[in-house]
Amino acid sequence: MDKNTQRLRRARKTRAKIAELAVARLCVHRTNCHIYAQVIDASGGRVLTAASTLEKDLRGTLKNGGNVEAARLIGQRIAERAKQAGITRVAFDRSGYAYHGRVKALAEAAREHGLQF
User: Fold this and answer.
1) pTM for this prediction
2) 28, 38, 105, 112: which is deepest, by most CB within 10 A?
């Protein structure tokens, strides 16, 4: 099994547990150059809000979208957008990535700005 297959297997197990909770989930995806976050409704069918380092206004200000500072900024943005959409409680879906580095920075920034998980 390669690394990506193992990651997707871990993600599938986590998402099964999150589905039992029946709350919106904050889903994180990272690549070498960017980081993405989405708040998806409890049924898993609709993206309620999203933020990423690819957004036009961020691309000009960020030197690199694949670092911890960019992840903190995305965590802050996704929390603010979720609060505007009336969402305060989510389940954190790390998509099989280790809770370390950029994933951890995004989660902590989202918590600091009002999301509960």
Assistant:
1) 0.92
2) 28
